Amino acid sequence: MPALTSSTAHDLGARYRSGETTPSRAVTEHLARIEALDPRVRAFLTVTREDALRRAAEADARFRAGTPRGPLDGVPIALKDVLCTRGIRTTCGSKILDRFVPPYDATVVARLFAAGAVLLGKLNMDEFAMGSSTEHSAFFTTCNPWDLARVPGGSSGGAAAAVAAGMAPLTLGTDTGGSIRQPAAFSGVLGMKPTYGRVSRYGLIAFASSLDQVGPFARDAKDAALLLGAIAGPDPMDATAIDVPVPDYRAALGQGIEGLRLGVPAEYFIDGMDPEVEQAVRAAIATLEKLGARTEAVSLPHTEYGLAAYYVIAPAEASSNLARYDGVKYGLRASGARDLIDMYSKTRAAGFGAEVKRRVMLGTYVLSAGYYDAYYGQAQKVRTLVRRDFEQAFGRVDLIVAPTTPGVAFRMGEKADPLQMYLNDIFTIPVNLAGLPGMSIPGGFTRAGLPIGLQLIAPAFDEATLLRAAHAYQTVTDWHTRRPQLDVATVERAPR
């Protein structure tokens, strides 16, 4: 049998039920792996060792009594540090919240605890989820487990790296413009952005409220189905959580994809993309065709404008959301201020990093008098056009299949130009603008051994078909089963 840190969540559940192992053993092994590897991988901001062992012991007792709570009972999990956790430091990757300890749990966290999941800790991220590499964390940069000199993607880089490195079988991240799917592609794991409104945002520290969505990282579609099923559904605490039925995602996995119509958008195969990425994605599409899916060309003509629209809308919303960090109510307060305005200025200068300041200034500008209609209003019109492109495409096909990113994980410091960094999200941003569900699954590797992501996009609230297609692909490929060769000796030899 595989080591407990190599097991999927559904395998762990089966081994608990058979009596082969216990949640305490699984949690102890994961904590030991975190202790051994994380000083170099640096995925965790906080490790909740005592809390994890306590919850694992409680799960042990439920299994001994024959009363487990469900498939996630006793399963170790970790969270991007953008989700509030009662009594546990929640930093959002920022110095301004370095000592913030929330008095409540985010809805998704409360639902996971109710399902019996065991929290291992909180994961590193780009500050306030603004970034594509986790290099913009205020604390440190997370390393890609496949090559410790490269980034794991972002902003959910810690969540992707933790799964890839075997430090947690499941994690939760957030996706505003690709921040689940892009790091999933870079780190060789499955990452899923649900439909906007499918999962509650209550307790999620906001970046851009009309775009942010919580979603799972996992090793395979079965695990993603378990995790999404546990967190999805309406929430009276969140007016944006839509009251629509949550299907049994696991039940849909075995239906196959015979006759499924897949759209292939020409706009997602652009000049300048890595030829190995294009080759792998086209090979994956051919594999889906062999499984019975039918492909046809579709057009998403406004894709090229999505990036520009996003970098108006998201900073505009960020400038509003981050106005609450003023040194008055919670978080950092700079000392030595002469008056209230000086306190605001000093606190934000000390507490926010360069990327956050850049986006807040941009957002404030596009919302200012005289520029609102020219920038923000126009960007919202482009957003409507992007959404209509998808609506027309889904009138003909069931899913869209495309690359997740135009390239693979890059070296730390390689994308110093912010505009070059922003281009990493060119294939993921349109999905957020349209509020649709999207997923990245491992679709191959470069000759240098770096993961390549295959992106699947579905109509609103059709996550079941995404999971079904991913599962079908994973039954005939082994990309998702490959693991980086990480051990203590490996990380000690890696360049720093």
For the residues shown, what is the average pLDDT? 96
Radius of gyration of CA atoms, rounded to a whole number: 21 Å
Q: Tally the helices: what do you get?
A: 17
Distance between the termini: 34 Å
> Which residues sit in consecutive blocks of at least 5 with pLDDT less than 50?
none
Secondary-structure element pattern, one letter each: HHEHEHEHEHEEHHEHEHHHHEHHEEHH
Report the major sheet: 11 strands, mixed
Question: What is the overall shape?
Answer: globular
Approximate strand percentage? 5-15%
Helix content: 25-40%
> Strands across the major sheet, in which order?
1-3-2-4-6-5-10-11-9-7-8
β-strand number: 11
This entry's quaternary arrangement is: single chain
From the helix content, strand content and strand pairing, which structural class follows?
alpha/beta
Please outline what is shown here.
This protein has helices at 9-18, 23-41, 49-65, 107-114, 157-164, 181-187, 221-231, 249-252, 275-290, 303-321, 340-351, 354-366, 372-393, 418-422, 429-434, 463-476, 488-493, and strands spanning 44-47, 76-80, 118-123, 170-174, 190-193, 214-218, 261-265, 294-298, 399-403, 438-445, 451-457. It has 496 residues and is α/β, with parallel strands linked by helices. The model has no long low-confidence stretch (mean pLDDT 96).
Care to describe what's here?
There is one protein chain. With 496 residues, this protein is of the alpha/beta class. It contains 17 helices and 11 strands. It has helices at residues 9-18, 23-41, 49-65, 107-114, 157-164, 181-187, 221-231, 249-252, 275-290, 303-321, 340-351, 354-366, 372-393, 418-422, 429-434, 463-476, 488-493, and strands at 44-47, 76-80, 118-123, 170-174, 190-193, 214-218, 261-265, 294-298, 399-403, 438-445, 451-457. Strands 1-3-2-4-6-5-10-11-9-7-8 form an 11-stranded mixed β-sheet, with helices on both faces. Helix 2 (23-41) runs antiparallel to helix 3 (49-65), helix 7 (221-231) runs antiparallel to helix 16 and helix 10 (303-321) packs across helix 13 (372-393).
